[in-house]
Hints:
Layout: H1 2-34, H2 41-82, H3 92-114, E1 130-133, E2 136-139, H4 140-161, H5 164-174, H6 176-181, H7 187-212, H8 218-233, H9 238-258, H10 263-277
Antiparallel strand pairs: 1-2
Helix pairs in contact: 1-4, 1-7, 1-8, 1-9, 2-3, 2-7, 2-8, 4-5, 8-9, 8-10, 9-10
Amino acid sequence: MELVFLLEQVVNGLLIGGYYLLLALGLSLIFSLGGVVNLAHGAFYALGAYLAVEITKHFGFGGAIIISPLIVGMLGILFERFLLRRFYSADPILSLLLTFGLAMVAEQLIRMFWGASPLPSSIPTAFKGQVVIGDFLYSRYRLLMLAVVFVALTGIWLLLNKTSFGRVVRAGVQKPDMVAVLGIRLQPYMTTIVALGVGLAALAGVLFAPISGVHPAMGAEIMTAAFVVVVIGGLGSFWGVVLAAVLVGVVRGITVHFYPAAGEASIYLLMLLVLLFRPRGLLGERIERFE
């Protein structure tokens, strides 16, 4: 029975890792290509959750999973076009101040439109209940979440590794000057990456709203853990972020099993240990900024 319970914690850790992955992957891609640390990323995550609550009322949870990330992705295009684009070649502190200010503004706007109290968000009726395999019990909804994360991860990997778009993005991360010499403008690619990144954050908000709750400060609460995953994985590395998210989630899950009070502390200790031996992160690459 103890082994089964430990297995449940490991699976929960994988789920948490998937949660972090949806947020951290977008953060990593935006920074790797544009050199901008997007502190407003959590605001898009929160907005995705709030939109999901509204969309579910009219189109059901299935509609929310599709529509909410699309709406937030379109907002990401406007965000990149009218705000972020001005700071690619500027002092990085300016983009930090911009995105930090935007995160604060977004949180207050959420309070104005939806109020300061948490909104109710429940698990879809079709996915309530447990899956039973011997002594192993696990939530159907959590299995759905793992499946959606896997599909999203596979789609991003295929986009970055099996398309001409992905080849340009990867070249732009590693050798932007070489891409410029070839006459390829990275600007349209950056717009797409920002839209994709904030759309993934919104998807995380939709999926985890019934579990973590929907409240104005939810974006700020998750950002630290997302940055930890990016740092551990290493900038410029797709699989580094994936590995870091899984590692962070499993370590946290196992730590909670043996010593619940140290759950949060374990991920920061893991980051410290990784950086002591791998300052660039697990699979980090040397990257250059494009102008």
